[in-house]
Design goal:
103 residues, mainly alpha
Length: 103
């Protein structure tokens, strides 16, 4: 007897086999990065990150609805911080930013 998916929060619970359709280029790129044995874990981690991004966007939208838009100077400061982190020397190595994003 299996436990229903709704009993677990994102990122938790036992693995379950599902069928999904992916673009051929994405399949190739994943296999090149992790091989066949790491494919499911890679996709699972990507889905979890997307759920986190969706929840963050919902929280930001709720905050903006309650408090108004984020002031331009704070947006500019956040963009500058992001650019400085993204251009950090340790992220400029062979595989750079994308290698760190996938871990």
């Amino acid at each position: 007897m299996s436990t229903p998916e709704h009993a677990f929060p994102p990122g938790e619970g036992p693995a379950a086999k599902v069928s999904v359709s992916l673009r051929a280029g994405n399949i190739r790129a994943i296999r090149e990065r992790v091989g066949a044995r790491g494919f499911s874990a890679y996709v699972d981690a990507a889905v979890e990150r997307q759920i986190e991004r969706d929840l963050l966007e919902e929280a930001l939208q709720a905050n903006e609805n309650e408090c108004g838009p984020v002031p331009r100077h704070l947006r500019d400061e956040a963009e500058q911080l992001f650019r400085s982190v993204k251009s950090a020397p340790e992220l400029q190595e062979e595989r750079g930013w994308h290698a760190h994003e996938a871990s």
